[in-house]
Every structure is written in C-alpha cells, then in structure tokens.
Amino acid sequence: MFGHEVAGERQRLELLESLLDGPTRDRFRALGLAPGDRVLEAGGGAGSVVRWLAAHGAQVTVTDLDTAFLRELAGPGVRVLRHDMCADDFPPGSFDFVHARYVVLHQPDPDAVVARFARWLAPGGTLLIEEPASFSVVDSPHPAYRTVMRAFRRHLERSLGSHTGWARTLPVPLQRAGLGGVGLDARIQPVRGGDAEARWWHGTLEQARQGMVTAGLAAPEDFEAAYREMAAPDFHDLSLTVLTAWGRRME
Length: 251
Description:
It is built from seven helices and seven strands, in the order H-E-H-E-E-E-H-E-H-H-E-H-H-E. By secondary structure, it is α/β, with parallel strands linked by helices.
C-alpha cells in the first residue's frame, strides 16, 4: 500500500501536494525561512516542497525510504538520501529547519521520532510537523463515506501500525523534546463532490481497497457507494484535520 511502484501513486501524491503545499509554504515563511538555511525534508513525497525550498535558496536534504520520485531533484542545493528516520541518524546541529508532513504518525514511535528531529536541529533551528487526524471524517453524516473512512482508519492501524490519533497530541511531543516557542495550528480540509480532495481520497482508498475487503473491514459495495457520494455535485463534507506544530531549539 502506497508503494512508489503502484500505478497512479505519483499522481496521488501530487494531488495531496496540491492540497497541502499552500499552508506549508505560508508556515515556512512565517517561521523565517531564509536563503542558505539547511533544511531537512523528512519523507519527500513527490518532491514539491523540496522544489519550493530550493527555489528560495535553501540547502535541502530530502530523505525517504524510497527515493524513486526524488532522484531527479538531486543537484546544486539538493541532496537526496535513502534514510530511515527511526534508525538512521544525523549529527546534532545538522539543520536549521526539519520538516515532516503526513509521515510521523506512521512510525512505530512518533514521539521518539520528534525527539530525534529535535536533536538534529542547530541552536535556533525550527522543527515543523504537519500531521492529519481522522476525527473529522469518522462521524460524517454521509453513510457510505463514513463507513469507508472508519474502515480505512482501522486498516491503517492494523496493517501499517499507524497511530491515527497521534496528531491530536500535538504540540506536546515538541515540548517534551525540549523545544521552545512552541505553536499549533489546526484546520479541517473540506471535501466537495469531484474536487481534488475527493479525487485524492478515491486514489487513496483504491490502493487500500483489496486489503480492507480481505480483512473484512468493508465490502466492495461500500466503496462504490462512497465513490458515488464523493462524486455527486451536491456532496459537501469534512475531510482530515491537519494539525501543524512548530518549535525552536533554544540553546
């Protein structure tokens, strides 16, 4: 599930980037990103954040367990590394910014990952975490959408070990990691019939569909009904809640 070799995975990631990049860029600006800053992009996706950071003069290190979609970015100002954020290390003080989006909750111990990120910051460096919480989708008034969203959350927890409620604990993990100037922003992504958010959900659910059906979490007709709901012109609902937390290494 979500492997880079899966047909349509790059397009799915690019859809997600189109939905999330605006707030990410705004937050980097607000936190004082400057030319020459050393930035770690942990979990690079399809690379849109890396491209933007490099265009603004940052010295970017982008990591992922699979760098197939990132290799083309390697060059002046961009270093691409295959790297496991739970096991592989960087020297303390390596970065002025560390950024992760939609990846930490899938790690075995998200709080430990945040603590590792904090150690990699230089004095005055900033950690920026963006993670989704599912509470805004699992109580939807649309029955098919609600059914597949509840099943998808359980599937992530069972198959990937994802901590689907972890984002709700932000910004406390950053405080525990010793960071100061901690802040939090929360926003709920809307989803309307046939829009980019609905298309992203369609692609995401299709990748998980067979596993969910095999596990008995949802039936094929549940997916078809949910897709009809999400494609209807009058469909309007809430998608994931995105929690954004940041903090600075003070010493």
